[in-house]
């Protein structure tokens, strides 16, 4: 069982701060690293896997620094986002080359085992140039798993996969997590993370914005102020009644018609709105959220 520990880690490139004072522990089981594009996920994964040195702070695996530490690399497997695979090699030769780099006693057998895990034995004799996006993802995965590492890091592994491949990979990650491995994967899609990860770490603009299980992250999201457009048969009367309720922080009339409502308690608002409109005999025509995008959730989390 292995734990990756990041302590006050920052990484800058010239003037740009890609990772800003991040402290987190990644333990056994599956962790999802969630954040919008450019949040610093790939940089964090490169720091964890020892490919990048921190500008400040420390990244350790079971107490050992990951940067320039070959002893640690034996326990780490990395599935990068970019296609760094060799196009002209067969899948088998590619996975086997990694087994040889790790100095495994029987590289051929280790490669077959790893390819079987990701269902890549059949296309293994074809050259990688002919592979689909999903197959490329899986051959990278086999290569990362060939030395049976205790820690597996995957950068946006579900990108480009079809639903069947996606489900298979999710099952594989779950299995590895329950076997006691430390598995971390990055994603910008909450639903993807929700289905596999026991623990979620949210990063926004290089900062660690939130941490917890899916329930905790979801609560943070639903407890934030929510903005809705409400159209009804009598907007003014409805506005006066809504603003009296504690779950509503503000109501304004929109120039184009309807109301803009800011609710602080999503759960309560969903009960209050129909009750108030029924009591007033005002008919609701439209209720739609205006800021449900993941970006707005992220910016709320980072400013709270
Ligand atoms: N080698 C580099 N040189 C300069 N800037 C970099 C470098 N690597 C990353 N960055 C910058 O650091 C920030 C974080 O990038 P990073 O790739 O880690 O984010 P991300 O969350 O993985 O995004 P995406 O999902 O789009 O890959 C970005 O502004 C990026 O442009």
From TrEMBL:
Residue stretches spanning the membrane: none
Listed PANTHER family: ABC TRANSPORTER RELATED, ABC TRANSPORTER, ATP-BINDING PROTEIN
One MF annotation (Gene Ontology) recorded for this entry: ATP binding
Signal peptide start-end: none
Matches recorded under CDD domains: ABC_DR_subfamily_A
ABC transporter domain location: 4-230
Family under the similarity heading: Belongs to the ABC transporter superfamily.
Name of the protein in its database record: ATP-binding cassette domain-containing protein
Keyword ATP-binding listed: yes
ATP-binding keyword on record: yes
Entries under PROSITE patterns matching the protein: ABC_TRANSPORTER_1, ABC_TRANSPORTER_2
Organism: Arsenicicoccus cauae
């Amino acid at each position: 069982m292995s734990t990756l520990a990041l302590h006050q880690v920052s990484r800058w490139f010239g003037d740009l701060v890609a990772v800003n004072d991040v402290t987190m522990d990644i333990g056994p089981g599956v962790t999802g690293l969630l954040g919008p594009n450019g949040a610093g996920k790939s940089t964090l994964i490169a720091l964890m896997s020892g490919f990048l040195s921190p500008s400040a702070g420390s990244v350790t695996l079971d107490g050992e620094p990951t940067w320039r530490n070959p002893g640690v690399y034996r326990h780490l497997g990395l599935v990068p986002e970019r296609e760094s695979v060799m196009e002209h090699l067969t899948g088998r030769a590619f996975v086997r080359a990694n087994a040889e780099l790790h100095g495994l006693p029987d590289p051929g057998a280790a490669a077959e085992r790893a390819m079987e895990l990701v269902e890549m034995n059949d296309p293994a004799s074809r050259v990688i140039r002919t592979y689909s996006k999903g197959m490329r993802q899986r051959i990278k995965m086999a290569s990362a798993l060939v030395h049976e590492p205790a820690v597996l890091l995957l950068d946006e592994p579900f990108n480009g996969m079809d639903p069947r491949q996606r489900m298979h990979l999710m099952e594989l990650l779950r299995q590895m997590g329950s076997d006691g491995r430390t598995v971390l994967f990055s994603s910008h899609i909450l639903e993807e993370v929700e289905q596999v990860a026991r623990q979620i770490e949210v990063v926004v603009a290089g900062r660690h914005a939130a941490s917890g299980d899916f329930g905790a992250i979801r609560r943070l999201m639903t407890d934030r102020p929510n903005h809705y457009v409400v159209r009804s048969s009598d907007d003014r009367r409805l506005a006066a009644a809504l603003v009296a309720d504690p779950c509503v922080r503000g109501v304004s009339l929109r120039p184009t018609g309807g109301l803009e409502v800011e609710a602080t308690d999503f759960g309560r608002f969903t009960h209050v709105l129909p009750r108030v409109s029924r009591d007033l005999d005002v008919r609701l025509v439209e209720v739609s959220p205006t800021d449900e995008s993941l970006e707005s959730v992220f910016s709320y989390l980072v400013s709270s």
